[in-house]
Amino acid sequence: LSPRVKNFVKEHELYHLQDKSQFGGWLGREIRANVVPGLKDPIGLLATIVASLSPERLRYYAQRIRDGR
Q1: Closest CA to 19 of 9, 6, 31, 8
Q2: What's the longest Cα–Cα distance across the chain?
Q3: Contact 8, 44 (CB under 8 A)
Q4: How many CB atoms lie within 10 A of CB 45?
Q5: Which of 7, 11, 60, 64 is the most buried (most CB within 10 A)?
Q6: Would you say the pTM of this structure is higher than 0.85?
Q7: H or E element, residue 24
Q8: 54 CB-side CA count, 13 A
């Protein structure tokens, strides 16, 4: 992954550590953890989205869904 994507993912995970809201359940947590760092680094958000849409990542996501994780 590029340094920009790595940094965005780090910021995403750091946001999770301080997010105490239960609003929206797990989906709300994920949306907040993408939007808040994305406002600070929109290019990092876009780079992360593009990296997440690679065929390898899409197969990984599909497998996780099939496995129920």
Answers
A1: 31
A2: 34
A3: yes
A4: 20
A5: 11
A6: no
A7: none
A8: 8
